[in-house]
């Protein structure tokens, strides 16, 4: 039988995501994909998958599921959360940032996320849903891709692709640390000239707060309203993930993975790609600031972020069960003390 | 190129300006206005780039007056790509894509076009005049977006120019034919919407199982053909059974 798991409780919003649907924006098809692409890539590396394999994106609260058809290997990355694996009345607890081998028949429960609004749970082999337009990402608004184009629900069965050769279970010794103060770097434009000097000054030098209106499409921000030289409306043009559009209210909206492909509001700035995973982790109520950088600086930051990703993947080590190092305790300490620098 | 009657070649960089959109995209903007000639330049640029994609180009997204160029900053950079795009030669050709003229059957008014009476009242026209004007115009596919498969079709006759509804609907049924300002469009799936609904078509405009996933392509043109309720029902049935072939008028120039 195909290795699979069946959802007992779906969590708050669990969706199948990969690195997104590329190449169809000209037809109005959004990119979608994991909000925290870094978590996706790290979770996949921990279970030995290709970097863009389809995995579960979890928001705020994780799912519970039962493992059938054979054992599976999984890893949670992007946030810390208690993972309980129960079999035969015995429950084992694990932390994030490590691979776990789960036997057939076990029940897994992922608890509340800490340190981020989203995390990625990857499975060795990847989640076997049919690719739609070249991607396994769920398009919630369009209702296609992922598992039946929607968030998971109790009773859903998700199959896993076969794995040829499982190596040792890997762990990330120094995982990224949750940030308390977030500064996102942003390139002014494409319509920075639609705004007053005072608006640009306020955007780059005063704090904003993530409002309750936040989902996979974007986050409406509270803070200093931004004023226009003329009007807010432009003839609709293309939108890139990370664009900060400003409707007539003057309060900015930071657009995330599920944003529509073109839109008619002026965009004051664009979050650089190196900082997009950090934007995706933000929760309602979080405070953030923006710092202006040039395109060349943004491109250099992306190269540095990619080098850091490769360094993190290279730093992964086999889990040493029962050895002197208590990995769970180590992770807990890191997350509390913030001793390891953020990325 | 090469023969004595060749059009004067124009460097793209002389017609466009580049707008930064972070480190994975930039816009190539040809103007501020919604204008068929400007839009033709946008689609022409997309066609030129598709024909010979530079290294690191990810995809392009045409809209009314600009082309958003997505690139991979680990493979290339904005400066290199902008230099290359600026040096493209616009040969004056305005034809883009397949250049088909789609004939879209539409049932106007009644439950299918709940705002037709209101549109007539607001424009000072009769319902029949609104229908005749809407169906009597050949529309350009300016851009697709807002929803997968939603095409911005223009230009709507000036006499039908109305602002969007002050109270947008929470649910607009799929297939609704709608107007706002100088545009008309068809909702490909049920969604919220603020345009005025004047009719309904049973055709499907987005199928994620197909590549390309949309019926229309850039450079296509669209004409609405009024049908009665019986014809509408028959077409709906044929569409549901997968045996309806959308009607085209053949190649445009």
UniProtKB/TrEMBL annotation, chain A:
The yes or no answer to whether the keyword Nucleotide-binding is present is: yes
Q: Which residue ranges does the record assign to the Carboxyltransferase domain?
A: 26-308
Q: Which UniProt keywords apply?
A: ATP-binding, Hydrolase, Nucleotide-binding
State one Pfam family annotation.
Answer: CT_A_B
The superkingdom of the source organism is Bacteria
- Is Magnesium one of the keywords? no
Sorted alphabetically, which InterPro entries does this protein's record hold? CT_A_B (IPR003778), Cyclophilin-like_dom_sf (IPR029000), PxpC (IPR052708)
Q: Which PANTHER family match?
A: 5-OXOPROLINASE SUBUNIT C (PTHR43309)
Q: What is this protein called?
A: UPF0271 protein
Q: What is the lineage of its organism?
A: Bacteria, Pseudomonadati, Pseudomonadota, Alphaproteobacteria, Hyphomicrobiales
TrEMBL record, chain B:
**Highest rank taxon of the organism:** Bacteria
Please list the residue ranges annotated as the Carboxyltransferase domain.
16-216
One example of the protein's molecular function in GO is:
protein kinase inhibitor activity
Alphabetic keyword roster? ATP-binding, Hydrolase, Nucleotide-binding, Protein kinase inhibitor
Tell me what this protein is called.
KipI family sensor histidine kinase inhibitor
- The organism encoding this protein is Ancylobacter polymorphus
